[in-house]
Amino acid sequence: MSYLVISTSLNPNSKSYLLAREAEKQLTGGGREVDFLDLRKLRLPLCDGSTVYSRPAVAKVRKRIQWATSILVGVPIYNYDCGSAAKNLVELTGDAWKEKTVGFLCAAGGRSSYMSIMGLANSLMLDFRCLIVPRFVYADDSSFAEGVISDAAVTGRIAQLVASTVKLDGANFDTLLNAHH
Ligand SMILES: Cc1cc2nc3c(=O)[nH]c(=O)nc-3n(C[C@H](O)[C@H](O)[C@H](O)COP(=O)(O)O)c2cc1C
Fold it and tell me: Is 168 in the pocket of ligand 1 (CB under 6 A)?
């Protein structure tokens, strides 16, 4: 299995980045092959649905997504949705996401936006038949202090997400259907 962790926040002091790095640490600790993508370093163009697809930076990131069987995405919650950089990444790379196992690690200001990742999850599920791990991490401001995750419960939930993702073993809709027929 090949794992990709993507940090999609562009904030230099991102908290979802800390969640994503913790997930990466737990995955590599188990001796797994993990790629880490930090959107702050990539300067991807905004999707125009046309000319951007041939840009080298877009082609590169597309390949890294294609390589992975399981993807964990660190997401900042903005306006009761994923931050636009995460949505833009999916718009740019589209069917590179086909049939991946996908999990989410969300950082939010408060507790009320708990379900706000569902728009992105639905799109990945219905457009690209991704298998969404139904055990996402959601951490609000109170879970962080001085640039680290300060809440052990959050680290524990990351461990659960990682364990579930590993157990799924890169499963997708087709492999699950075939396994049962
Ligand atoms: C434009 C904007 C919109 C936001 N909207 C929400 C929101 O709807 N719900 C929420 O709980 N927090 C919201 N927040 C707070 C962020 O989710 C919070 O700052 C979080 O740490 C962002 O993740 P990051 O630190 O990885 O960038 C918003 C922040 C910004 C800048």
Answer: no
Residue 178 has pLDDT above 90, yes or no: no
Q: At 132, which amino acid appears?
A: I
Residue-wise pLDDT for 7-26, tens only, equals: 999 999 999 999 999 999 99
Q: Per-domain residue ranges for the chain?
A: 3-179
CATH number of the 3-179 domain: 3.40.50.360
Does the CB atom of residue 78 touch ligand 1 within 6 A? yes
pLDDT on residue 115: 95
Look at residues 138, 102, 162 and name the one whose alpha carbon lies nearest to residue 16.
138
Residues 6+ apart with CB under 8 A from 54: none
Q: pLDDT tens digit string along 57-66? A: 999 999 999 9
CA dist list (Å): 71 to 2, 22, 38 = 9, 14, 13
Ligand 1: distance of its center to the CA of 81 in Å?
9
Bridge partner residues of 77 (DSSP) = 82
Give the count of alpha carbons within 13 A of 162, CB side only. Answer: 25
- Asked whether residue 180 carries a pLDDT value surpassing 80, the answer given is no
